[in-house]
Each structure stands twice: as C-alpha cells, then as structure tokens.
Amino acid sequence: MPADDPIRFFHRYAGRVETEAVYGERWLRWTYGTLPGRLALHAVAKRAWFSRWYGRRMDRSASAGKIAPFIAQYGLDPAEFADPPESFRTFNEFFFRRLKAGARPVHPDPRAVVFPADGRHLAVPDVDRADGFFVKGQRLDLRRLLGADDLAAGFAGGTAVLSRLCPVDYHRFHFSVAGRAGQPRLLNGPLFSVSPIALRRNLAILWENRRWLTLIKTPALGRVAMLEIGATNVGSVEYTFAEGAVERGQEKGFFRFGGSAVLTLFEPGRVRLADDLLEQSAQHRELYAHVGDVMAWVA
After folding, report:
1. Which of 294, 290, 286, 297 is nearest to 122 (CA)?
2. What is the pLDDT of residue 95?
3. How far is CA 147 from CA 78, 143, 259, 263, in A?
4. Domain ranges, ordered by start, for the chain
5. Which residue in 51, 63, 118, 169 is the catalytic one?
6. Interior CA angle at 210 toward 271 and 253, to 5°?
7. What is the mean pLDDT of the chain?
8. Is 118 annotated as catalytic?
9. Could you confirm whether 284 is annotated as catalytic?
C-alpha cells in the first residue's frame, strides 16, 4: 500500500469500506512526506516537550471553544456522552470523556476476547510469519517492543492486534481479558504519530515510541500483554485500575489529547481471531469496531 494513499478501513457496523477523515491530515502528510517536514519532526514534533506544550494548551479554559466545532465536523453523537458537551471546562476534559452506561456493552460470552478501545484494528495471526502490517515486509520487533528477551521469546509466534485510536474516538481503554494484571511499566521513547501516514513509512515507531506495558495472567490464555503507545501530543497516560484481579471490559485508563494506540499480544495458539478482523487484516486494511465487541475467541 503506497504511503500516500488515503486511509481506508472496513466499518464493522455499516458493513462497508470507508475513508478516514484525518484530523490534521495536511500537517501529517507534510511532516512525514517531505524533507522539511521530516526535519521539523525530528527537531520538534517527536519531542516530549512539544506534546507537553500542546497538552497545556488543551487544558486551558479557552480550548473549550473547540468542542462544539469538533463535534459538528466529525459527526460525534453527544447522546452517548455521560456528560453534556457544555459541561466540559477544557478540550482535554472533553477528549477523555466517559460514555453513558450501556453505550459500549461487553460481549456476554466469557470466551470472547474483546477490543480494548474504540478504533481501527489490525491483526497479525502469527508475528513471526507476518507478511506485514500496513505495508508488506514490515514486521514487529518483539524484543525491542517489549524491552526484554525473555518476554519476546514467550510471545514469539503469537498473535498481535493493533487498536489505533483517532482524535475523534472515545479515548478510554479497557481490558480485553479477565485475569490478574501487574503494574504498567514505562518504556520511554519519543512521540511520533501512530497514524498509518507515519506507520506506512516506519513501523518501528511502535517499538520506539514511549509506551506502557502491562502483563495480565489469565487461566485460559496464559499471559496477555497490553501496551498503550503514546504519540505526538499524547505525552501522558492515566491509569484507573489497581494491580490485581481485573474483569474483561473493565476500564484500564485513558489517553490525553491526540491519536494513540493499544497493542495486545497473545501467546501462540491461544486465540482465534474474529472472521472479519482476520479477513480485513489479510488485505492490510483496518477494521473499525467498538470497545467490548468481539476481537477474538479463546482457542
């Protein structure tokens, strides 16, 4: 898939291929697709201070004026929000908003492994034999991604699902499985964009960016790894769970302003991916689906 192609995904609920309305698309394409843009990227945009600076702007009361135009431009449904749009004091408060109870039901079958977030999802059934993520020939470097040789060995040949959140999405993330979760461990790094505009050119962003790794021990799936991956203008992740027993679909935390991603890793032979996720991923095309909906089944 050429790096400059439009970003298309399959919408699970509409049953059709759609083209993504990319927030800040002109800036992204200039930054990652031109020499002056790449110079600016390495000098400024990937730096943590830039994301902190932008985040502070989104925490100012003046930023609340961006909420109504954003809702209108991207067709968000305020009826899903737990709080009315006018109640948010800043854009960041709106950005990590909660949804009403029942807006994202968790699939009732206990053998269902569920998506951790609203977003566009791409799967690799076997990370050792993958033909590519967004572009053929791109593969995950588990050792660098997980920051430990023993973890990389344990997940070798396993299954990976990348859940990419756009700025327009609900930005709280949840547990895909039930089990016992450890404390998130920070693996520090820069803050490149995780848009396909960037990933098509350099998949290594996933294991270079700042990320937080949580290991979950489960009865049926062995160890499951969840990584929250920061991105440009997402310098911080807030966690809302306590170490220990967690439930499938339970809130894990939220991202502050910007696009971001959650990567879920399973040990080999543990899960069977949902048919539509498998079909779309084989075409290097993301599947749009909601948090709590079926991502895979216990094998």
Report:
1. 286
2. 86
3. 40, 6, 23, 14
4. 1-299
5. 118
6. 60
7. 84
8. yes
9. no
